[in-house]
Amino acid sequence: MTDYDTRKLQCHCCGKTSEHSVLMSSNSFGSRDLDQRPPKMYRWTIASWLQECPYCGYVAPSIDKGDARARSFLDTAEFRTASLDPAPDPVSRRFLVRAAQHAYDGERRSAFLSTLSAAWVADDSNRPSDAAALRLRAARHLEGPRITSIDTRLLLLDVLRRASSWEAAEALTAELTAEELDYPFAEIV
Questions:
Q1: What is the pTM of this model?
Q2: Looking at the chain, which runs of residues are DSSP E strands?
Q3: Residue 139 near residue 159 (C-beta atoms within 8 A)
Q4: Phi/psi zone of residue 21: left (φ > 0), alpha (ψ -120 to 50 degrees), beta?
Q5: Cα 69 to Cα 8: distance, rounded to the nearest angstrom
Q6: DSSP characters for 24-59?
Q7: What residues does 18 pair with on adjacent strands?
């Protein structure tokens, strides 16, 4: 069973108060997809995973929490660009704003995961071309210095596969295969 509550929260960044639906409980019976998308009951709560201040646009899991970096991010061109993203729905846009903040803070994996969440929203809204484009956008967050986490690299491989980015998926598969991974990683690749 999924349960919500409505709460008045004071924004960490601007100090103004607004009402938000807060997820109190849900369940996650079942297995996650290869791209780590949660099972359906919990997945349907995705619209409540992030809140947005209607006054300043701050996006966070709970807008009453944050740090000085969150406040300074609101003054950046990256925030303004992400806030104006033409994503077809507000849930996806919130994830993209959050991804921009993670990227600004140098948190590549978190930016990748937030963008991937926006792709899940597109999947569940039956917008496969948007989902593929968002997956490719998520993958770009992991460009640069080599990712060492096998979990992140396997997740990236599935993201590339789902986005039909066959050359990039093949290159990553070759890289992972050359590492002679142990069970179950080799079988997954």
A1: 0.90
A2: 3-10, 17-25, 51-52, 59-60
A3: yes
A4: beta
A5: 23
A6: EE----SPPPTT-PPPHHHHTTGGGSSEE-TTT--E
A7: 9
125 Cβ neighbours under 8 A, 6+ residues apart: 88, 89
The β-bridge relationship of strands 59-60 and 51-52 is antiparallel
- The CB density around residue 129, as the number of other CB atoms within 10 Å, is 8
What does the alpha-carbon distance between residue 107 and residue 152 come to, in Å, rounded to a whole number? 13
Q: Find the radius of gyration of the CA atoms of the chain.
A: 18
Q: Show Cβ contacts of residue 188 under 8 Å, excluding neighbours closer than 6 positions.
A: 154
pLDDT digits 0-9 by tens, 88-139: 799 999 999 999 999 999 999 999 999 999 999 999 999 999 999 999 999 9
Tokens standing for 85? 């993203």
CB-based contacts of 2, cutoff 8 Å, min separation 6: 23, 25, 26, 27, 41, 44, 45
How far apart (Å, rounded) are the C-alpha atoms in residues 147 and 107? Answer: 12
Q: Residue 157 has which token pair?
A: 């491989």
Mean pLDDT calculated for residue range 5-24? 90
